[in-house]
């Protein structure tokens, strides 16, 4: 083994250490990004559940109002009311 071989081995070991350090940094960064993504996705799901519950409550209240409403009111606003009911039923 001559002096050139030793310096190549040291250089190769140095590059390997740099690659390992870079890999750890990338892994750490991606881990943080994924945790943030998971947190935001969970918050989104919770918000959607809350919205769904609010829409269900409002649909129930709308149904009660329609039951108690006068016929001219229903006739006048029927297209809008039907549109709201169709949108809700798609969810």
TrEMBL record:
InterPro entries attached to this UniProt entry: Snapin, Snapin/Pallidin/Snn1
Keywords from the named record: Coiled coil
Gene Ontology molecular function terms on file: SNARE binding
UniProt key word Coiled coil: yes
Alphabetical GO biological process terms: endosome to lysosome transport; intracellular protein transport; lysosome localization; lysosome organization
Cited Pfam families: Snapin_Pallidin (PF14712)
One Gene Ontology term, aspect cellular component: BORC complex
The family this protein is said to belong to: Belongs to the SNAPIN family.
PANTHER family to which the protein is assigned, alphabetical: SNARE-ASSOCIATED PROTEIN SNAPIN
Protein name, as recorded: Biogenesis of lysosome-related organelles complex 1 subunit 7
